[in-house]
Amino acid sequence: MKILVTAGPTREPIDPVRYLSNRSSGKMGYALAGAAAHEGHQILLISGPTSLDIPAGVDFLPVETGLEMFEAVQRHIGRMDAAIFAAAVADYRPAHPATGKIKKSSAPLSLDLVPNPDILGSCRSVFGFTGTLVGFAAETSDVLDHARGKLIAKGCDLLVANDVSRPGIGFESDRNEVHLVFPDRIETLPEDDKTSLALEIIHQVEKLHAH
Ligand code: C5P
């Protein structure tokens, strides 16, 4: 299969030296890209900035901002059999990034933010993607309810949900526990390292694609 994977955080410029971002390490997305390549699939990994090594055998397209990630996905998704959205795209970006470094002053400073496009949410409606679509959801409460809502709203075949309020798993960790939310059922994969979970998720994607 040809599989597109998004991973990592995005960086939204405030001025030439500052940005808004989040604590995504990219580990889950990179583990998915690596596991899928290892299984013999053709992978395009579209990634925001991380400190990780690019997995072996993966085509790599680095981006910085949510808008760049949106454009990269739009350009490539048409030829994909499946797309897995593990990136933590910033929900907002500064409306008017300054062209020069903002000088310090004693006055308060406010930033105008505008929403970034929802890349996963654009796949069915804007990009016309008909392949297997997998989203992620990091939640701190009512994990399964929110995940099911996102599965339906974004037209996914599978939504992988994790509880980021639990210490020791999820963001920045090598380990995770995830719930696989399908339109007709939920399966929980107990806590494990992200490499093993990634392989299990790729097997699920293979099954979804075969149906
Ligand atoms: O941020 P949210 O919980 O809605 O993210 C759910 C899914 O949507 C994730 O798979 C994430 O990668 C994707 N997403 C996206 N573009 C955004 C926001 C989220 O592709 N702007």
Describe the protein.
The chain is built from 5 helices and 12 strands. Helix content is 27%, strand content 29%. The protein has helices at residues 27-38, 66-76, 119-125, 143-153, 194-210; strands at residues 2-7, 12-15, 18-20, 42-47, 59-62, 82-85, 92-94, 113-115, 132-139, 158-163, 175-181, 186-193. With 211 residues, it is α/β, with parallel strands linked by helices. 38% of the residues are buried. It has one domain (2-97, 113-210): CoaB-like (Rossmann fold, 3-Layer(aba) Sandwich), CATH 3.40.50. Cytidine-5'-monophosphate (C5P) binds next to helix 3 and strand 9.
Question: What is this structure, in a nutshell?
Answer:
This protein is α/β, with parallel strands linked by helices and 211 residues long. It is 27% helix and 29% strand. Strands 5-4-1-6-9-10-11-12 form an eight-stranded mixed β-sheet, sandwiched between helices.
List the helices and strands and how they pair.
Elements: E1 2-7, E2 12-15, E3 18-20, H1 27-38, E4 42-47, E5 59-62, H2 66-76, E6 82-85, E7 92-94, E8 113-115, H3 119-125, E9 132-139, H4 143-153, E10 158-163, E11 175-181, E12 186-193, H5 194-210
Parallel strand pairs: 1-4, 1-6, 4-5, 6-9, 9-10
Antiparallel strand pairs: 2-3, 7-8, 10-11, 11-12
Helix pairs in contact: 1-5
The structure holds cytidine-5'-monophosphate.
